[in-house]
Specification:
heterodimer; A: about 190 residues; 7 strands; globular; B: about 190 residues; seven-stranded mixed β-sheet; about 20% helix; about 30% strand
Chain lengths: ~190, ~190
């Protein structure tokens, strides 16, 4: 593996109740994070292909961790998202190299299909900072009930020479969706949008 | 009738492969479980609160069982800890109700766990974080296993809620070298050494 991993964390949240109403079955979200060494910390590197390869590896690894943590089959995944936070000796472009060119394809294998764009966020940061990972429906980006997010943070990452890479997967939308729009049941899931 | 009213459960597991030193053969895993519940005593002073400990027992067992599963079985667990975050309409004393049901739930599932379960608690707002202490399950003085895990949720505890927490770990700090009593030298009689 190209990625030098220091730490992996997986969080699951299950909402059984929202504003006094029972949610049954509970809505469930998982986020998996890898803390890796930034191979280009402190230097300007023109060619970022190593980070693109790392992105591909982590798309598979972190996608699988989420699906396993939720105890679901890949087909049961409903939404996903990805994010990266770069420690202070790196640059924002490092996040783009990890997230955009190659991370998506292996992630889509782990969640089956995944016709929709994987929503993403990125930032520079430091240990303990919060990373908000956006979530969107995996096959039809316009499914309004599945626009959501999940917060992740680690008190000890990213250190200055590190990168935190996060992938989030859910088996459900928001707990009490009622703002209309395209529904999960109506989505055709062919063009990634509707 | 149980007054336990659960809004949310959250579980975290961390696998630490190294922290800048040589990568050990076995990585360290830590896991935390959080249960977000209604605080039945929020907003008033209630003299008699101990009955709620009984209602907390099934939640403790559910959370501890899940932690053991996440870490790969009871035989792998070497450290534990517990804590509580109390929403602002409650008092710190309400968090103390978690001591018995939280601690005994973990000990019921683990072998040789004579050591007191270290704990911490505080009143906080939504998004408050808690550094939950961890010590060896069978001998509190084992220095390699002194550790902690930070937990918290962005949407809890609300004013009328409590977030109760259990934490387990599978071993020593990843590059443990601060000496003291080692796990292999435990006498295992008094829970201390």
């Amino acid at each position: 593996m190209s990625a030098k991993i220091r730490k992996i964390a997986v969080n699951i949240e299950e909402t059984h109740q929202e504003i006094g109403r029972k949610i049954d079955p509970a809505t469930r979200k998982a986020v998996a994070v890898a803390v890796i060494e930034n191979p280009f910390a402190g230097t300007y590197q023109e060619d970022l292909s190593l980070l693109m390869e790392i992105g591909a590896e982590l798309g598979m690894l972190l996608g699988r961790k989420c699906v396993e943590a939720l105890g679901i089959t890949p087909a049961q995944a409903e939404s996903y998202g990805k994010s990266a936070m770069i420690g202070e000796n790196g640059e924002l472009e490092h996040a783009a190299a990890i997230l955009h060119p190659k991370l998506g394809a292996p992630l889509r294998k782990e969640v089956e299909k995944g016709a929709a764009l994987v929503p993403s966020s990125k930032k520079m940061g430091s240990p303990g900072q919060v990373l908000d990972v956006p979530l969107g429906h995996k096959d039809a980006a316009y499914v309004r009930s599945h626009f959501d997010g999940i917060e992740v943070r680690l008190n000890d990452a990213p250190r200055a020479d590190e990168i935190m890479v996060a992938v989030a997967v859910t088996d459900s939308g928001r707990p009490l969706p009622r703002v209309g729009g395209l529904t999960h049941g109506e989505a055709a899931g062919k063009d990634g949008l509707r | 009738m149980s007054k336990l009213n659960l809004r949310k459960t959250a579980y975290s597991v961390e696998e630490i492969l190294h922290e800048g030193g040589p990568v050990p053969e076995r990585s360290l895993c830590r896991a935390a479980a959080i249960g977000v519940i209604e605080n039945p005593f929020a907003g008033r002073y209630e003299p008699d609160i101990q009955w709620f400990m009984e209602d907390l027992k099934p939640l403790g067992l559910q959370m501890a069982t899940r932690l053991v599963e996440m870490l790969g079985g009871a035989e792998r667990i070497e450290g534990y800890g517990k804590g509580a975050l109390i929403g602002e309409a409650g008092e710190v004393e309400h968090g103390a109700l978690w001591h018995a049901p939280g601690g005994y739930a973990m000990r019921a599932l683990l072998n040789e766990s004579r050591a007191i379960v270290p704990s911490t608690k505080k009143v906080t707002g939504v998004g408050g974080r808690l550094d939950v202490p961890i010590t060896h399950i069978n001998a509190s003085y084992v220095r390699s296993h002194f550790d902690a895990m930070e937990v918290g949720l962005n949407d809890a505890p609300k004013a009328g809620e409590m977030a109760v927490v259990l934490v387990m770990s599978t071993g020593a700090r990843i590059h443990d070298r601060a000496g003291g009593l080692a796990a292999k030298d435990i006498q295992g009689e008094d829970g201390l050494r």
